[in-house]
Amino acid sequence: MTAPAAPVQAIILVDDDANILGIMARIVGFVAMGYDVIPVASAQEALTAMDGRTVPLVITDYNMPEMNGLALLAEVKQRSPNTVVALVTAYASADLQRQAWQLGASYMLPKPMTIEQIEQVVQEVLGITPNQ
Q: What CATH number corresponds to the domain at position 72?
């Protein structure tokens, strides 16, 4: 009898802006070699992408149609409490930050974010030592 295959490890990126999503996917793919990097344009697609996978990290935009980043954060944490969620927003406020922390966000990134900020989050979550 064959043991069931281990779930595929994936990092899910969520943004309704295709340009930002493409840039994030390239950066994360470079840093997180060996992980599936799944860029999606909506929160619902992100939740579907979680099925059957181990997801150590979700990086999501806050301002999206249908389901915003806070609602996605809450749903991700309900399904997978150990998944780290980084919320990206151009609309940072003390109230938004408080809500995000209460729902279990581990990171809040400003939009536009830098390559270094994305790399740092991925490296910290996956335990990757940066190249010197």
A: 3.40.50.2300
Domain annotation covers residue 2 = no
Tally of domains in the chain: 1
pTM exceeding 0.85: yes
- Element spanning 89, H or E: strand 84-89
61 within 8 A of 91, measured Cβ to Cβ: no
What are the Cα distances from residue 95, in Å, to 32, 91, 99, 101, 126?
32, 10, 6, 10, 29
Contact 56, 125 (CB under 8 A): yes
Give residue-wise pLDDT tens across range 56-115.
Answer: 999 999 999 999 999 999 999 999 999 999 999 998 899 999 999 999 999 999 998 999
Domain assignment present for residue 39? The answer is yes
Domain region containing 77: 8-122
